[in-house]
Amino acid sequence: MAAMRLLGLVFFAVMLCSSTAPLASASAQEDYTLFVSVDETKVSIESGNLTVGVVTSDWPRLVFWHTVDPFSPTFDIGIPTLYLFNDTDGDGRFCRAETLCTVYLDSNHVEWNRSTVRSDYSVTAGESVMFSMEATTHAYNATSETTPSVQDWANVTLWFCLAENELEYENPAGPHVVSGKTSLFMNITIDVNNRTDFQMLAIETFVQGGATTNSFHILEDGDDGEVSAVLSARVDETTGSDEFTRPMNSTTSPVQCIDLAKEDGTVQAFYDWDSVARNGSGDVDGVMVNSSCYTTGIGLVLHSAMNLTNDTMSISVGSSLGLIESGFVGTMTDWVREHSSTVIAMTIAAAAVVVVLIHIALRRRRKKKGDRQENDAASTGV
Asked: Are 224 and 253 part of one and the same domain?
């Protein structure tokens, strides 16, 4: 009986946790504070409902989730490589067959130096945190990943900013707004040291959701655009023909966007990037960014390609990422899928406890029955 009561309580608790009642918004509180922690491998920032870890010890990579929602999936966005190529098919976009040199951004090939993490307050930004990471990179051709063909090709700098208030950023296509509290702005600037004859540069970005948030909505005209394609992370487009890269149309919007969504279409996170890059630190003329993407079975690979003219010695591209608050209502399904090993261990432990309780209950029952039989025998004199 005790074992059945325990099972009933466990079932009730699971049903209670899996309810879909909306979560209270921590960022809606009057008080707002950015919590920042720094160690040798990452910078962690908690901003109301958004927690983001910027990995600085490997390659530029951002891992983020909803702080308050216990069932939030973990989102992962990183920039592992750059490519130098010539546009042999003339479409302005990158495909792997056009690669002439690869610039690896992982710690096996470069040494990242992180700046001081600066927390500040201003009337415009409110509470904010900002820092950068910088490295000298080398270009490798297909024959060797250990000996660079272009030594000290470029200095690559990424800087990050997360603020309490929404902030307006601008590229040659126009201004765009990055939300406060739930969005982080990232900029990558590439200053070329050794000029090559390669025509174009491509930035590779890997985008991954978690649990059931495994769909990508392609919005070519930024946040206000319509969804032009819905792609599934579970589909590996590289197993088909050699032309698996999916071209994205050019846009007049300052940014293009990928939304990360659940299987039912609920959007929970996003990644935006400039549709036009800055050509040099002081130039107002822009360089068109032509994008393409494909899914890998676990995530999406985005390539942002731009022209390197003879006088292009510096190029800068902005991007932002963050949460869509309306997409979080807290369900058990995501948590169970993402923490399946923990769930299995807990289930086994709970089953073991139930077995022990049943065993103890049966032993007590047998003992009571034996005691009654002894008492009955004693009372009858047998």
From this structure: yes
